[in-house]
Amino acid sequence: AQSVTQPDIHITVSEGASLELRCNYSYGATPYLFWYVQSPGQGLQLLLKYFSGDTLVQGIKGFEAEFKRSQSSFNLRKPSVHWSDAAEYFCAVGARNAGNMLTFGGGTRLMVKP
Amino acid sequence: DVKVTQSSRYLVKRTGEKVFLECVQDMDHENMFWYRQDPGLGLRLIYFSYDVKMKEKGDIPEGYSVSREKKERFSLILESASTNQTSMYLCASRSREAQPQHFGDGTRLSIL
Lengths: 114, 112
What we know:
The complex is a heterodimer of chains A (114) and B (112).
Chain A lengths: L2 E3 L4 E5 L4 E3 L2 E3 L5 E7 L5 E7 L5 E3 L5 E5 L4 E6 L8 E8 L7 E3 L3 E6 L1
Parallel strand pairs in A: 2-12
Antiparallel strand pairs in A: 1-4, 3-9, 5-6, 5-10, 7-8, 8-9, 10-11, 10-12
Chain B lengths: L3 E3 L3 E4 L5 E7 L5 E8 L3 E8 L6 E2 L6 E7 L2 E6 L8 E8 L7 E2 L3 E5 L1
């Protein structure tokens, strides 16, 4: 079974600073990988996904993520954070079989200082 | 754009009540899911459905059941609500395997 770890429960960055949110997974092969964002009181919105091909994936709102097979990681990055990026971020892993069920990490709550 | 609608944003019920959470999607998606979300635990899958009248248990099905009589609607049922079922419940749908899931805004359920 797959598992996902987001080591940072909370992160605070200053507006305009760069951001990296960590995600590590455990899976026997190359999984499908996703990042979702959840604003307060809302559902989850897909930021980006990796299925195959180029390991650097571009998403919405200026986010990108890089799949590193050797490190079993899929870290999310943004070069310059905006106050509206304050939210909770979830990494998810989907198996390439067994119905492609998703396993979610525990989430990272991002706070942005003015 | 995919729209997944959950019937209630907030719900307060009493222990022992039978509770229904409703979810409707408007994109003719085959697959639908129910998750619960608790702080620090992320999302955990309760049940999912591949198609009408089909259902499969997820990771934490105990105390829950589901119904999918029509393709667009997936209901989560708490047969006899208990306080440990107080949580945020999220519904999702997707067109088929290997496609992203689209989420509703969630129902925050409190069991008193």
